[in-house]
Design a protein that fits this description.
The protein is an alpha/beta fold. It has three domains: 209 residues, no CATH class; 171 residues, no CATH class; 132 residues. Helices cover 39% and strands 20% of the residues. It has 20 helices and 22 strands. The strands form four sheets. Strands 10, 11, 12, 13, 14, 15, 16, 17 and 18 form a nine-stranded antiparallel beta sheet that branches. Helix 6 packs parallel to helix 8 and helix 19 packs antiparallel against helix 20. The protein binds adenosine monophosphate. Adenosine monophosphate binds next to strand 10, strand 17 and strand 18.
Length: 601
Amino acid sequence: MEPVLSHDNSSGSHGSNSNDGHDIIGWFEDVTEKAGSVQTQILSQILKQNHGVEYLDKWLGRFNILDMDACALESLFTSVVPLASHEDFEPFIQRIADGDTTPLLTRQPITTLSLSSGTTEGKQKLVPFTRHSAQTTLQVFTLSAAYRSRVYPIREGGRILEFIYSSNQFQTKGGLRVGTATTHYYASQEFKIKQEKTKSFTCSPDEVISGGDYRQATYCHLLLGLYFSDQVEFITSAFVFSIVQAFRSFEELWRDICNDIKEGSLNSRINVPKMRKAVLNLISPNSSLALRVGAACLELEEVNWSGLIPKLWPNVKYVYSIMTGSMQPYLRKLRHYADELPLVTADYGSTESWIGVNADPSLPPENVTYAVVPTFSYFEFIPLHRQKQGCTSFADDFMEDLPIPLSQVKAGQEYEIVLTTFTGLYRCRLGDVVEVGGFHRGTPKLNFICRRKLILTINIDKNTEKDLQRVVERGSELLNKEEAEVVDFTSYADVSKPPGHYVIYWEIKGKVDDELLHKCCTQMDVSFVDHGYVVSRKTHSIGPLELRLVKPGTFKRILDHFVASGAALGQFKTPRCTSNPGLLTILSASTIRTFRSTAYA
Ligand code: AMP
């Protein structure tokens, strides 16, 4: 790589105010200043490194791309190589997984594959993972840490309470390692570099992170987080779901945890031998801490655990995790636990590639835009237009134009992202809709809007995850006066009997009477603003919305269901709409009350 296009990872910093932070910010300012030409160079590097691979050969094989200048190569590539979706790469990735070592997608042999969370698309995808993937992970973490440390400096040598979890790894027929991208990163040299260089260590040892049982790992993360509580500088996870999930468990577990702190013991529910051994090696009896934590928990119970984080971790400066997109519904609960502590949303990426960094950590998550890092991949943007003027729904039939390069995007416009990566994906549609919120020097700052795929549709109605999220927010506002809350939700388009109708499942905490729940149901029905839905409801070609209340603990069972089929807690996103028979069985067996909307009667 040319020096300007890479940043030396060995100088990683994770929150200190060292020169390293200035270095990486300086590097970022430099590459974003000339983001357009950097992108042209990056594409040229990707294509020249991988010239002659089977996937590209049918379009580029007859050109001598090695001698071509970067600009000519960019226009050739975007005019002859077609847009693709993950399905186009699947047969190639399958051959790699089966042990085919010919250059199919990349010239460098691929030895590791990442498994996407699959909870949004209902299917886990396999994506190549290379050293470059681990390096860019370290780079994005280092860069965002440098920005954070400008606003919220932390003590060097402090600890981080990280709710992180490796997935189980397995080998393909051809002997390739498969796991989630985060699992590969935690096992990589780059993760160790991050810890050693920054002298900020996660509270939990590797044996906990990779212990393979998320409930046991959560218990140990909480125990060790409290054991080292005075040293903890910030709390983090990949997606904020994991933090909220951990503190909800803490409400039930705190007495056992206090007992373990007092005795220097480990509850018998932890039965993974290497996890037990590693935790017991770290702790010794500390009755004064146990007493302090126990007293604080009794007070917290009185206020429904409001302000749990600052009360138990007095030196924590902020909470850091992905809080936008499908994670936004958990913000309310996180604010309840975090009180006035700053919430900093973490960076934007996918198993396929990292995309953008949060360069404005002082902004609340709702207002954050992610600055595209122009060296990570070659990014293209498909302009999306709503078909009907003035329509407020997100899914109202996007019309699309031809993709444009990063240098041509416009503020205020919505796009779907297309990726060409160092790991062998060429013009691959990611399926995420973003809006350009502004620019960081020459690179766009993206506001994550939603996944493009429609989730609720019966006939002419079209609703995305974001539409559903807003509808649930509206409906649940009525619960707030009752001090009840929606723990989690999902939905289902029931077309088993005409007319079809939407079913929304809620798990709630707190006591709510039937009359209010019926109002919530009707409120949700009228909160869908998609023209197709409203018309269909008025003409009764879609039936009244149904709210089904499920038993407490149902969404934990759903999480278990996914984890049992190979998902990792660290990347888990509750599916907001499902037709998965396993999930529908859990939901229907757990339904305790049902309500029908009386709107549009
Ligand atoms: P996966 O590859 O399964 O881990 O999921 C990647 C997807 O998670 C992305 O394509 C986005 O839809 C979503 N995602 C990742 N980072 C963010 C973020 N910062 N804000 C909102 N959504 C995100």
